[in-house]
Amino acid sequence: MAALKLITFDLDNTLWPVDEVIRRADRRCADWIAERYPEAAAHMNRATMIRIRDQLLRDKPGYVHNLTTLRRDALAQGFREAGYCTNEAAKLADQSFRVFHDARNEVVFFPGALEVLEMLADSYQLGALSNGNADLKKIGIHELFDFHHSAESVGRRKPEPDMFLAALKSAGVSANQAVHVGDHPEEDIQAARLQGFHAVWANLLDQSWPDHLDQHPHRIHNLHELSDLLTMIDG
Fold it and tell me: Which residues pair with 198 in a beta bridge?
């Protein structure tokens, strides 16, 4: 077996828990709108924004590959429905999205995440592969990664193969020299294995492995376990 040279990581729910991050970012965005544009906030309640988002996805399913554009366009539609002209709605959508995105990148890492990344960066190329819109520079870990591919940057989200193939191209390695670490059984683990990657299921939130998938042998419940497992895979 070829020696491991590349480790790719999913981000949300792999390096940090994301659900509360998104809830907090949603609240901060809504509060920002309410403080400055209360008449718009009265219309842009949670139910309205869910309706707008769902309609955008029905009209243009490709939004699923670009969550930034989906959220920004949903905000713009909300402002338009609240009575703002198209140009003003777009400007306010940009401003309110920046509020959301700043908060979205205020994450609290799982125990051991930073230490493990710093250690592995000394021996391997590291890549980030994410369906979300986390900003590694805002989070402060971009220097630990050799590259970051997202659904937005490659145009397709996992479990499509595009992100994994982009990672191999960026690193200049073959799939059997790469390990992908992620939390999602299908979008991360099965998808990576289909492209020939080794894969490690980072089950840090105590999920259940889906019955319809073959059992996966490589799994961790704490990121501190990753180093020893990589040594075993590489051996």
Answer: 179
Interacting residues of 224 by C-beta distance below 8 A, sequence separation 6+: 111, 112, 115, 116
One-letter amino acid identity for 156?
R
Q: What are the structural domains, with CATH classification, of the chain?
A: 6-16+109-234 (3.40.50.1000), 19-104 (1.20.120.1600)
3-state secondary structure of 216: coil
> Angle at Cα 133 formed by Cα 131 and Cα 137, nearest 5°?
125
Helix (H, G, I), strand (E, B) or coil at 214: coil
Bridge-partner residues for 149, per DSSP?
A: 129
Distances (CA, A) of 122 to 163, 176, 206, 221, 230: 23, 20, 29, 23, 14
Query: Which residues share a beta bridge with 8?
Result: 127, 180
Give the pLDDT confidence of 80-118 residue by residue, as tens digits. Answer: 999 999 999 999 999 999 999 999 999 999 999 999 999
- Among 126, 198, 189, 203, which residue's Cα sits nearest to residue 159? 189
